Amino acid sequence: MSKKRIIGTLVLLVLFSMVLFAAGSKDTQAASASDEVTLKVFHYMTQITKTQGLEKIQQKFVERYPNVKFENIFYNQGTDYFPQLQTALNSGDLPEIIMGNPSLYPDLIENGYAMVLNDNQIIKDLNLTKADLGDCSYKGNVYAFPVDYKTWGVFYNKRIFNELGIAIPKTQSELIAASKKIKAAGYDVWADWYKDGASVDIQTRIVVWTKAAQNGDYDIFQQLMSGKKKLADYPYIKEALEDWATRLQFNRNDALSNSQNQAIELFVSEKAAMFFMGSWSIGDIESAAKGNPNFNYDFFLCPINENPSDVIMNIQIDDAFMVNPKSPNADWSQKFMEFWMTEGGITWSEITNQPLTSGETSTALSAVTQAIAAAKKTGNYVGYGEFTTAYTSEFTAAWRKGLTQWAENVIKGGSLNSTQALAEIQKLFDNIIATN
User: Fold this and answer.
1) pLDDT tens, 270-287?
2) For residue 153, what are the β-bridge partners?
3) At 365, phi and psi to the nearest 5?
4) Which of 11, 74, 103, 362 is the most buried (most CB within 10 A)?
5) What's domain 37-148+318-360's architecture?
6) Could you state, in order of their start, the residue ranges of all structural domains in the chain?
């Protein structure tokens, strides 16, 4: 065989090997892309529209990546979520995507079950405020994708208010007068929902967060959890219980047994004139209102005393999700959350009526949602993320347990006063501190 033929044969063999290698690489890539991936999402979204929004975003993602499947695991935040997450943490069987603001879950983070997202470009591009950044961080590191944010206050029936000639209350005495007028006209005043722990919490935040910020007590939760301070050391915590009691006196008979979904139904069916709730319920209110074309509602921030300037919006990141880096599907989980934060953002917002942390809005959103988004841009608010740390899940559960007992005491005409109620909650806190 000539030298030329030998060289030609070698070239052909090399080329053939390259073709086989390339084909093999493509087959490997195809296999990798087609390998079935299941992403377990652990969440506490009770709202129907949020569940629909989550499923819609997941559907869009699967259309692009058919090899991905989702398993959604739901628990009620007010009752089951914290203990179930702790059970999962102890068993080591954590899901890929975990809902929650990071500072609530120090054990999860310190055991390496939440991905550090400091360098994530999607989050960087949000240009988050200090408050928002604090809500998705723990000890200076970002651990969660902050999808949207929330506030809370009074949703009210515009027809009933107009019928009775009631103006938007600017002070606590005006709210009490309006409540008496509503009751005298034969309407229930509040659509209560004290079965859920979140309801009792937001009733007191409007005083605690506002007053803490005004007094510069940004370390209040850190001090209380460390035991260096007691609840009684902050007079406005007692004030928060007493402020809430002024509204509790106008409760419905089913106040302690109603869930938020039941309360939404009461409000939309016009069986109650007001509804103290968070903005996370707007989507479900809008959805339920489709069955009552005469229903018309709006929203105002709840006055806490006789000084209208003390009425300041509270802000907190609402739907935030952490990615478990120990999962073999961590890359897919991150890819899904980045998809949700970008291409899926408006879809999510229009289904749920939640204002996005990105600031992106749509004319399809309710007037209330658009107004909340506009109000945040003024900067006149107190954000939970501004505090040095938030209550952990243990302290949150204890706080809500004590507040629920306070509500039951006031509604049933119990003998417990606000000072005694705080002492009972302090015992719960002291037990946590002692065991830790």
Assistant:
1) 999 999 999 999 999 999
2) 277
3) -75, 155
4) 103
5) 3-Layer(aba) Sandwich (3.40)
6) 37-148+318-360, 151-314+388-435
Which two structure tokens, joined as six digits, stand for 75? 């628990």
Q: Please give the model's pTM, rounded to 2 decimal places.
A: 0.84
Where in 234-366 does DSSP place strands (E)? 272-278, 297-300, 313-317, 320-323
Supply the pLDDT for residue 91: 81
Q: How large is the angle between the packed helices 330-341 and 345-352, nearest 10 degrees?
A: 70
